[in-house]
Amino acid sequence: MPAEEGPADHQLFIELRGQPATQEIWSVAADGRSPGQRLGTTPFVLPVELRWGRTWRGRQWPALQVAAPGQAVVGAYDPQTRRHTLILDLIARAPGHEPARLRRTLRVLEPDGWDWAKETQFPSKLALQSELRARPAEPVATPAPPPRIWLVEGAAPPPEATGLLTAPFAAPDLELWINNRLMGRPPLEILAPAGAYRVGWQRGTERLGETTVRLEAGETVVLRAP
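Structure (tokenized):
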């Protein structure tokens, strides 16, 4: 039932603070899951108005109306116990953190014995804390190491007699050749015995950047694209 216009019988102010300190507070959409209306940023005060729509003496207890921005607070009435339960339902969001659903029972109101003027029985202010969990960092993909190729066929030479020819970049339109043998597209690592090698690049049928490289045992020579 929508709340009537006019002064509220009682006002309740809910102060929301959080960790992290700055959080966006949203109502819950009609689907019951996703954010609906953006209400504010913490620290944030949510006003709630309670009305019967009648004079104080003539009020009817089941007719209590609850009004809050975005319907962030609703009243649920149990006719058997004649109790009103005030329920807060919000979503808190912050960059780098998992969103959190804030669903809290604020108060259970019974029909007898309430004096709205007494702060001890029904305070006009409530404070709530929202703590969000930091979102796990996205895993950083580690690029696979380039394939390591033996230049010579047959048994590999002992490590102390070899060096490394490396092309540590990506160039999908180029192929490396060594001593007129195509080795493949970079990135590449080629183990070879110490010695002199004729190296170059090939794009389609065109040869580029031909040069002679001297490789010493235990040395790494970086090959550059033309």
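The chain is about 0% helix and 50% strand. The chain has two domains: 10-131, 148-222.
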